[in-house]
Design a protein that fits this description.
The complex is a heterodimer of chains A (156) and B (66).
Chain A: H1 2-63, H2 72-110, H3 118-139
Helix pairs in contact in A: 2-3
Chain B: H1 3-31, H2 39-65
The chains are: A mainly alpha (156), B mainly alpha (66).
Chain lengths: 156, 66
């Protein structure tokens, strides 16, 4: 009986030792995962550092007059200026178009021939070119980033 | 009506159309705000471009027929 008890005690000791060794192995296996945690934390820190670096770079760019595009205020101003220029060009082109069309219509009304003279043909070609310019400029509307996206290609 | 008269009438009509389209386009451009895309301006300009192209082609064809 006592032999049996000692055997059971031995088995219990052995199983405890096995459990301890398994636990030790499991802890050993977990080391790399635990080692990974500080790395990822380090990565976050790095990325925040890079963000800080980026903002610092932006400040640097804004200090540089050649790269003022990156500064949002300057970009907004630049877009407004480009839009103004574009609008002025469209107005000017449409004025020229109306002038040319009026001249052409008067000339045709006065002439007795059904054929167009080379000068009249040049005016028609100029009207075609100006109309294309107006269309292209209107489809190239420049919108500030704060205003959101806008269709720039015009209707299909 | 002779072919010459027909041609003259056609050219006169096309030029009147050009003038009307140019007037409409000018009105649309005056109405449009500078920071927006005006679809009506784009359409009018495309119509005007097509009409001018047609007039030019018609003139070229009549010249080659003569």
């Amino acid at each position: 009986m006592s032999d049996l008890n000692s055997k059971t005690a031995n088995i219990a000791v052995i199983s405890r030792q096995r459990f301890a060794s398994l636990l030790f192995l499991a802890l050993l296996l977990m080391v790399p995962f635990r080692a990974g945690l500080p790395q990822s934390t380090k990565g976050v820190v790095l990325s925040s550092q890079s963000l800080v670096g980026q903002s610092h770079q932006t400040l640097d760019y804004s200090a540089d007059p050649g790269s003022a595009v990156l500064d949002p205020v300057m970009a907004e101003r630049r877009m407004k200026m480009l839009n103004n220029e574009r609008h002025k060009a469209i107005l000017s082109d449409s004025d020229k178009l109306l002038k040319l069309a009026t001249e052409l219509n008067d000339e045709i009304a006065r002439s007795n021939s059904g054929a167009l003279t080379p000068e009249q043909l040049r005016k028609v070609a100029e009207i075609e070119k100006l109309a294309r310019n107006v269309r292209d400029k209107m489809t190239m509307t420049i919108v500030s980033p704060s205003a959101g996206f806008f269709p720039v290609n015009g209707p299909p | 009506m002779t072919p010459e008269e027909k041609r003259k009438e056609q050219v006169a009509r096309q030029c009147a159309d050009l003038l009307k389209l140019a007037t409409d386009l000018k009105a649309q451009v005056d109405k449009a705000r500078k920071d927006e895309l005006s679809v009506s301006v784009v359409r009018k300009a495309a119509e005007l471009e097509q009409m001018a192209h047609k007039v030019r082609n018609g003139a070229a064809l009549s010249t080659s027929n003569e």
